[in-house]
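Supplementary notes for students who missed Thursday's class. We covered one full example, reproduced here. Read the sequence, then the structure, then the short commentary at the end.
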Amino acid sequence: MGKNKTDSGKFVIRKATAGDYGRVKELLVQSGQITPDVFTKKRYENTLEDFNKYSLVAQKDGKVVGYIFGFDDSGRSGKSKFYGYLGRLVVDSEYRNMGIGKALIEESMAEFKKVGYKTVFAGVHKLNTSSKRLFEKHGFRDDDLMLLRYLDL
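Structure (token representation):
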């Protein structure tokens, strides 16, 4: 994970941490992806404990400005099996169109590829056309249920 250049400076993609909870929740609530009562700190921390290598944040000028939730089907065993999954992609409205969403997807996909997954699913609400287009630009195809991608190894 490293720095990525944007039109107006640099941002960093890094693994999400427990300390990011408040800002991640704020972004997800503002985007309408969750309601405040659903995304508890305990639930977020459990997710990070089980799947931290795929849940990433984008940080610019010390502020979390983007998030992507990712997991695989290994669960607590840690042994990869068949597929990966991406969802809850969100970028602060003030920081859109700077390549942040693209970088979050690419970094997550690189982690899935390292593990050896051939299939990664992306859950995108059917009315979220901007996220759908972004995932499709990265090789995901709509199967009328969810977007999915087959990785080339």
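Commentary. The chain has one domain: 3-150. The radius of gyration is 15 Å. If anything here is unclear, bring it to office hours.
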